[in-house]
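User: I need a structural model of PNPLA domain-containing protein from Actinomadura rubrisoli for a docking pre-check later this week. Nothing fancy, just the predicted structure tokens so I can convert them on my end. Input:
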Amino acid sequence: MGTVDSSRADLVLEGGGVKGIALVGAITELEALGFTLGRPARIAGTSAGAIIGAMLAAGMPVPDMAREMREVDYGRFQDSPPFGVVGRGWSLVTRLGLYKGDELHRWISKRLKGCGVETFGQLRLDDPDSDLPPERAYSLVVVVSDISSGRMVCLPWEYHRYGLDPDEQSVADAVRASASIPVFFRPRRVRSQGRSASLHVDGGMLSNYPITVFDRHDHVTPRWPTFGVKLSARPPDGGPFPQWRPVRGPVGFARAVIATMAEAHDRVLMDEPSIVARTMFAATDGVLATDFGLDAETRERLYESGRRAARDFAESWDFAAYLARYRP
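Assistant: Understood. Predicted structure tokens for PNPLA domain-containing protein:
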């Protein structure tokens, strides 16, 4: 084991659809404050967190990432099949999603290829001081929900369950699966050896904020901390239940069901002081994950919210104090 390094951090990024630009704001501020993110440290993310995390792990400069997220036309990702409403309805019934998701995949793939990354094998960690087992020695972890088996899956760690070589699997495919908001985007089919295809959808169904994914359980002090960025305001201590949401119509019902599944597990984590202590809370009030028509002013507000969250967090962060309190 190497010495403790308080300037480096593993990073876990919450999912949140178009609100993901706040994640870039937080990363921008952390880098400006002197924190080193990316290899040999690791990044994990769900949905939008997987998109941002993949670009960061691939080595995209943070200013370029910020520009991409400011300028992208989210509406292009609503790639409906032909025949308008009828086509979308048919797609939902026969392919389990209103939108194909091909445009989203192409957009992700192009950015990663521009950084020289196509497969997880290109994101293997070369860290002689690490004691990670080979199957976990990757700089990126993408969280998806396997609705065929009813479990959360961390890719590339668990490709062996499907009889697949993780090094040969497409990063863009995994990220596209993690961002497959149920009902909105078609799920990704993963064909494994000796069994029927598994359906992968938005990792947020089971854990939108997988903050514990890199935690050690062997009582060994980590070399550096794991930070998380959450796309919501900090919960009040002992506060009331989350804000009540009206549920109207079948689409509203579907959204409420998905939101409940996504939030229930992670809300329990916010009762754990050691989790809250390493989490940045970027307020994204009033913005839905599926607000594909996000205007420039709202994008800038989200970006600045992320920067402010990281700045506020860094002012009080002390790794030595954290270890003394939570890992004595």
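Before docking, keep this in mind: The domain at 10-326 is CATH 3.40.1090.10 (Cytosolic phospholipase A2 catalytic domain).
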